[in-house]
Amino acid sequence: MLACVQSYFSKARPLRHEVSPILAFSVQVSYSASGHIAIILKINPMRFGEGIRDLRRKKRLSQKALAEKLSVSDTYLSKVENQRLDFREFPSEKLIHKLADALDGDETELLLLAEKVPEVIKRRLLERPDAFIRIAELNDDELDEVLERLG
């Protein structure tokens, strides 16, 4: 049970630890008496669009070349990178999957940067909400101690 938590939350210290060059995050999970689960992600100051731009530049792709790979317009990709989408803050999960593939980016990191909870985390959370609640209630020192024991 804790192996799954370790793999996704081992770096979950509020903005003090970087998981990758583009992502640092913390997760807060709360569970109400009525059975509702709330997940709050706190994402680092780098914006989703900046992360996409950085990955694209590392791959030495122009916006036009990446847009062609994704089957979107370069204008749309520019709006994604500049966080100027007309109808929502982030692109769809489907496009995020395509971006991860095209840029050799970590899909989980990109989804979290877009404030979306990856399916593997949602699924595990719903399987064991009791474990996630207990982990969410730990302070940083307690969480560090648990992670140290896990190796």
Brief digest:
By secondary structure, this protein is mainly alpha-helical.
Proportion of β residues?
A: 5-15%
Please write the string of helix (H) and strand (E) elements: HEEHHHHHHHH
The SS-based structural class is mainly alpha
Cα Rg: 17 Å
Low-confidence stretches: 1-19
Structure notes:
It contains nine helices and two strands, in the order H-E-E-H-H-H-H-H-H-H-H. With 151 residues, it is mainly α. The protein has two domains: 2-44 and 118-150, no CATH class; 48-113, Orthogonal Bundle (434 Repressor (Amino-terminal Domain)).
Name a few traits of the molecule.
434 Repressor (Amino-terminal Domain), disordered N terminus, 54% helix, elongated, 151 residues, mainly alpha, 2 domains, 9 helices, single chain, 9% strand, two-stranded antiparallel ribbon
